[in-house]
Amino acid sequence: MTNDQLPGYTDADVKAALLAAGASGTVYSLVMPESEAVLSTVMDGASMINDALEPDRGRLFELYHEPWSQKQDGMHEEYFRTWAEWAAPVVSFPAQEFVHRYPTAGASEGIYKLMAEYAAVARGNDITPTINIFDGEYEGFAAFAAALDIRLVRHQREHWGEIVPTLDADAQFWISQPSAIDGMVWNEFEAFAAILSDQRPDVQLIPDLTYVGSVARGYSIALDLPNIPAFLISQSKPLGGYYHRVGGVFAKREYPSLFGNKWFKNLLSLRWATTMMLRYDVHHLPNKYRPVQIQAAKNSGALLGIEQLAATDVMLMAKAPKTVGLSPSVQAVLRGTGTEEVIRLCVSPGMACLIDPKMAPTTAPDLLQKWNDEGLTPLLAQEQSQ
Questions:
Q1: Are 212 and 90 in contact (CB under 8 A)?
Q2: Which of 6, 53, 198, 269 has a CB 3.0–4.6 Å from the CB of 246, allowing a cystine?
Q3: In total, how many domains does the chain have?
Q4: Do 297 and 266 fall into the same domain?
Q5: Model-level pTM?
C-alpha cells in the first residue's frame, strides 16, 4: 500500500488525536501478560503442558539442530492440529478435505500468495482476475489486490442478498469473520456463503479467520461448502502475537507458492502460538479482558465525544453509530456504507494502559492523568481480576 492509498486515520495528526484518547484507527495487537509469560516459558524450554519442569533452554535450541535430518519439516503440523482443536467450539470444517496446511507469517503472507496464484491462473486462462470485498473490509485485501494489479470491486454489505448475480465470472470473494468492518460476528455469513455456493459456484469464497479467538461469546462459523478452497488463520490479534508473525492457510489443494513454507518457517513463533492455544481456550482471554475492553471503550468515547462508543465482539475494538458533528479525527475512522456505516476504533492502547501501565510506558502516564482529570476511574488489573 503506497502513501496515497493509506486510510485517513494514518495521518499523523489524526493518529495523535486518537492516541491521546487511548484509541487508534489501525487495529493493533494487544500484548497481554499471558502473551509474555508464555514466550518466557517457551524461551526457557519448559514443557508446553507441564510448567513444573525445570527450565532447559537447550530443549528450545534442539528444535534447530540437524536440519539435514529433515526433522523440522513436520514441526508445523502440531500447530495446525492444535488450532483445529482450539477453534472447534467456533469453527467447523471438513478436516479431511483441507489437507494442505501451510504456516505463514501472519495472515498477510497467505493473503498475498493466494491472490497471486489466483491472478496467475486467471490470466493464463485469459480471464481478468477480480477480487470482491464488502466496503470497509480489512485494508490488506485491497492493498494486495492493488499490488498484484487485480481488479477490486467493493459492495455494500447490507445488500449482500442482491450482489451474487452481479459478480464477475470466476472471481474471488474475500471476507473476514468475525468482521474487520465493525468488529462484530457477521450473522449472515453462512447464509451468504450458501447462496454464493448455490448460485455462483464459479466464485471462490476465501474466509479470513484472523479474529477467531478474540470473541468472548459463543458463535459459529461453518466452512463446509465446495466454493471455499482455502481459509486463513492468525494469532496476531487474538493472542497478542503480531510481531511473532505466525498464522497459516488450510487448503483443499496444493498452492505451489506456499509449498516452501513447510521448510522455511519460524519454529519459535509456532511453538509460542501452540503453547498459547494449549494453555488458553478460544474464549478465555476475551472473557477475561472483556471488562477492560468495556472500560477502555467508555474512556475513549468520553474523551472523543462519542457518547455511544461501546465494546464490539472482537476484544480489541469499539464502535458507535455514525452521527453528525463528528471531529475530523473521528470522521477518519468511519467504515462501511449505508445503514451499516459506523465509527470503528481500536482500543488496544487504552486496554494496555488499564491492564498494566508498564506495558505502555510512553502512553500510560499522560492517558492515566487525562482519565483522572475527566473523572474516568481506570479499571486496573487488580480490579478486573477480582
A1: yes
A2: 269
A3: 2
A4: no
A5: 0.91
Residue 235 belongs to some domain of the structure: yes
pLDDT in tens, 43-71: 887 655 555 455 566 678 888 777 888 88
Do 12 and 81 sit in the same domain of this protein? no
- Same domain? 160 vs 92: yes
Question: Chain centroid to CA 245: how far?
Answer: 12
Same-domain check for residues 226 and 305: no
Same domain, 274 and 310: no
Among 249, 279, 309, the domain boundary falls at 279
pLDDT digits (tens, 9 = 90+) for 297-320: 999 999 999 989 999 999 999 999
Say if residue 264 is in the same domain as residue 312. Answer: no
Q: What are phi and psi of 263, to 5 degrees?
A: -100, -45
Centre a 10 Å sphere on the Cβ of residue 44 and count the other Cβ atoms it contains.
15
40 C-beta neighbours (distance < 10 Å), count: 10
Cα pseudo-dihedral 100, 263, 80, 221, rounded to 10: -50
Q: Which of 287, 216, 368, 20 is nearest to 379 (CA)?
A: 368
CATH of residue 132's domain is 3.40.640.10
- The verdict on 185 and 226 lying in the same domain is yes
Clarify whether residues 164 and 26 are in a common domain.
Answer: no
Specify which residues 222 forms β-bridges with.
Answer: 92
Question: Does residue 7 lie in a domain region?
Answer: yes
- Domain membership of residue 18 as a residue range: 3-30+289-384
Grid coordinates given for 179: 468482521
Q: 266 lies in a domain?
A: yes
What is the C-alpha to C-alpha distance for residues 185 and 223, in angstroms, rounded to an integer?
A: 15
Whether 21 has a pLDDT exceeding 80, the answer reads: yes
